[in-house]
Amino acid sequence: MNGVLEASTHKSGRQIMATFGIPWTQNKYRPRHLDDIAGNKEPLISFRKWISSWEKGIPKKKAVLLYGPAGTGKTVTAEAASRDLNFDLVEMNASDNRTTASIGKIVGTAAEQSSLLGKKRLILLDEVDGIDSRADRGAVEAIISAIKKTKWPIVLTANDPWNPRLAPLRNTCLMIQFKKLGLRDSIPYLKKMCEKESLEIDDRALKFLVERNEGDMRSIINDLQTLSTGKKTISYDDVTLLGWRDQKSNIFEVLGNVFKAKTCSWARKAIELSEVNYEMLFEWIYENAPTQLSDPRDRAKALQALAKADLFLKRIRQTQNWRLLSYALDFMTAGVAMSREHTKPGWVKMRFPERIKLRAKARREKALRTSIGRKIGAKCHLSTGRSIQYFIPYIKQIFSNKPRDSKSIVDWLELDEEMIEYLKQ
Amino acid sequence: MWAEKYRPRLLNDLKNQKEIVEQLKRFVKTKSMPHCLFAGPPGTGKTTAALCLAHELFGERYMDAYMELNASDARGIDVVRTTVKEFARISTISKVPFKLLVLDEADNMTSDAQHALRRTMERYTETCRFILSCNYSGKIIEPIQSRCALFRFSPISKDDISSYLGEIAKNEEITLGPNALEAIVSFSEGDMRRAINALQSASSLGKKIDEKSVYKIIGKVTHEDIKEILALTLKNEFIEARNKLRTVLIEYGISGQEIIKELHSEIFRIELPEKKRVKIAEAIGEVDFRLAQGADEEVQLSSLLAQIASEDMQK
Lengths: 425, 315
Known about the structure:
A: alpha/beta; Rossmann fold; Helicase, Ruva Protein, domain 3; two-stranded parallel ribbon; 58% helix; B: alpha/beta; 3 domains; 7 strands
């Protein structure tokens, strides 16, 4: 499926990996021991406590549900634990067919039988939130009954444990939450990895990589591997360009269709031609529309069309009604093309959509503002939103004018390094 | 923050709001009170009044019988309901026969949530009194209003603000030039928190605060940038205007809604043909609505700017 042949025809970022073999995240840099896992200190302590309680007999909670976003180390925790404790790992994941019968057969027998060689077992049920309610009918019940009967520890993982179907599991299992990795946990880990690979990467680039992937270690490491092919130094620009480099030549042709089209169908062709996804295409058009259609009247119409496209895209995201996509695409292609009335033809340079680079930063800062706002709110009897509005602008002033005075505010609000950095800007 | 450090602890220390204070003192004396609705603009002492009231009713250990909930932060009425239930259930060993629950920003609740709240208020009325605080009492549903004693908090007078700032300045050992004080007072628009925050920020520039340092602070915390965005737009420098907008949104973290609000008032201040103002206001309203639906702030706002520029050209 992800063979070399396919990877060489579609040269987008992630697939390139296939040309040089196994992803680091699956082998070379997959943590082997519990001590190797980055971040999530507290969840790992709870997990160790639970797993070591098996040495004193069967504990009250025989199963644990590790839940949290992708790439935070849930599955790896189970694998590493089995290695550290020398248990046999019996694994079942979302790609297996999880009917009552198969769960009963695999998990049930594994759970009840003692193993032949006297080796202990650890049973891993990966991605339990992927259980399909119709195809895997009775799967949850089968898991519950396996947990009741089991002689061995059972580890379940899920991204979203709040699915109503999983309610019975939540009561039966010890719940341990894994969180996205922050900069503090991920950066040192990644730096060590780069050292081993003798890769040079500047801090800004690494930080951007973490932010863009929102702390998902798997995709961060995948990106690093992709970037490192045939290169020993990675710059900030390399990182920001990852994922669209190969589509660069194509995008200008596509944009030409949008900005120069005389008819709607000509403009709409852009969608078929485009190798970037429609969200990226939107960004390209939005970035360049004001300069390509430089007459204020045309520009107003074009941006109005884009604003409407944006509104449709938002509605699609909210309602998951993908039929609406074609209207959004109409507005962003034909709608923009038909705005040209007064602008004189001529060549104007296209620009890379700058705000894509800013977006990761924006997301991080928003999260920071919210957590600062929450701290202020708790002290000043205000909601988070109003704390941000009423206090942060003033606090920023104090931080930039008189760093010495800010110390008492830092102590009072118990701000951490990242928050202080933000307020100092 | 000084705004918190200098928050009055006793009802008598409250600035302005004399009638309200008298009434609240009667509640303390008789150890009985109805549900209350505190309405008024920000920084006029609503939360402070509630805190003082709790302090005087329950004494030093008032935290046992007092609780604050914020309607904007509490996710949904269910959270409010269970929290109230937990809070009201446990009785205190106090001479006062009820507990006090303050629900802040109650006007941010949907009317459905308010109806549910009304039932909760009725159910626990024996053991718990509510103080709802809001900016606009009009946004509170009739049935709740009719169950509450309404207290209207008015903007704090210039004299009261300047005398209070004077006290703080003395205590913090800073000197205030006469014009500096005036500048802060007029900037505060009757909002004590805003006044104190401005004073504290200005003091970070030096122990002697003059008019200039006040204006420096005011310029930074008010939305000078938004005026600049509008000015660039009207000069037909759209790309610069959009870049500035991007900076304001992303780097300064000012929300789209705030920018909209500022643009809206600015539209009626700057020089424009009267009819255009109305047209632009309509466009602003539309964008405001879209932002509420969750549309992209930059895309929507820049389309608005483009529209303003083209309206201006057609005069």
